[in-house]
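SAMPLE LOG
Freezer: B-3
Tube label: C17
Construct: single chain, 612 aa
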Amino acid sequence: MEKHHKFSIWYVLLAIWFVLIIQNYLVSAFAIKTIPYSEFLKLRKENKVIEVAIGANQIQGKIKDGEGPKPKETLFKTVRVDPDTSKLLEQYNVDFKGEIESNFLPTLLSWILPVFIFFGLWYFLMKRMTGQQPGFMTLGKNKAKIYMQEDLDVRFEDVAGVDEAKQELMEVVEFLKEPGKFTELGGKIPRGILLVGAPGTGKTMLAKAVAGESGVPFFSMSGSEFVEMFVGLGAARVRDLFEQAKQKAPCIIFIDELDALGKARGFGTVGGHDEREQTLNQLLVEMDGFDPNIGVILLAATNRPEILDPALLRPGRFDRNILVDRPDKKGREEILKVHLKDIKVEEDIDIEALAGMTSGMVGADLANLINEAALLAVRRNKKKVGMPEFEEAVERVVAGLEKKNRLINPREREIVAYHEMGHAIVAISLPGTDPVQKISIIPRGIAALGYTMQTPTEDRFLMSTSELLNRIATLLGCRAAEEIVFEDISTGAHNDLARATDIARSMIKEYGMSAKVGLVYFAREKRNQFLNIPMEGAVEYSEATAELIDSEVRDIINQQYAKALEILKQNWEVLNKGAWLLLEKEKIDGTELKALMGEASSQSAEGRKKGA
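STRUCTURE (predicted):
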């Protein structure tokens, strides 16, 4: 992994401090001690003068500083007073010279050397910075990461749950391995292949698997890396990318998050021709200009295909769109098997049951789930990961982190217990609802004081009117339980009310499930295909229609609330027993709730027999 170093002012301060230390050391090392002439005579008599250099007005030399066999030598200088000094020096056998030695070298070292060190350090830091941020001459160069054949260890067997997408991409692998097989018949491989799907479904891994299987270089770049502040840089990078790709052909160019670059021109911009549009224009030109038979394949990925420029999607550019969809139950089983290869698990792991508990999750979610389970096993000092850890990990991913230390007063705990039992009893009493797996009053996530976990038995792609109505009744069971038991209501049902209202409004405006409103689509706004983000494009309708829609939504909510009230009144004993059991254990599973329901039904049947 490449390490990035950031420039800091502390580097400059450290360099200055280092220079001052060196200068101080050099000055102290070559410092010349100035002494009086009388002291010089005294030292001379004590035989402490080693050598001198005599000038016209100054004497300079070395003296012994200290006692012992190897005393320290110190430079000295003094003003010359006695003209007969030379005779005196000869008398005491002291070496002397007839000129003063120059101190140019110490002065040079004390000033010039630190300057060289400072500039050397500055040059090193600037070189490191330019290694991270390209200079002026490299602004137009592309920033693509190039993976050679030996760097790619991803194969199709490492990508599970997307069999249809893999089958489509096998043609690309065959073309890169044996291009003559296609050119003999005059066929042409698609110039560009667009992978579309929800985030985390494995689009990037699929692209790497294509390169890994075919054994060709892989250019990887994000769409946002083309767009820069300076006009023309993005277009220059596109040109440079395709030029490098042609030199290394056969190869694969992969552009992740293509919507950052390929958004429809004029979409959401005030001006008509900005830097992003120039970059997109250059990409369109390059895709038209290169011959696919040279072995350059352009792959791109996006989760927002509806905002791409139509010119990108026409034949001759991105000819083929491949959907990388959310995996079904079988696909989730395969993904779990791939990720479980590196995890030590117990023998009784039920992968099929685990796949059933993770409906709607994509590959990234499943990888995170397995990692969470492994971390839980380590925290519990276990040698292998078991099914309890996987179930706990599912709850953690779906509902959030458990907060056992959050203090809730007894009154609120009781309200939460009846709240969750209301959900569970209505859900288990109505046909077509997902089975109740677990009920908990332990706070989780940001605001959830408890939760009722329902696990679907199979993947569903269509829902009937009765199933939607039963789902609304299940959501409203919490408010109904509070009203029956406490004859008062709390704010705990705000999220359930929002979800119930959304389902009812969708039934009226999108699914045509209202006899009064009719089979008309009245959705106020379109939504992103994979991200579920509201988009522009409101459908207009009259105020009278809006009033009718609101009236129908209210009727649906009221009817299902009355149904929930009726169910809970009939199961009053189960509601009480379940709530107190929940307060005692904090968690109960679906089998315990079914046992309570079965016990209550048998008692009521006995009562009816006795009454008869």
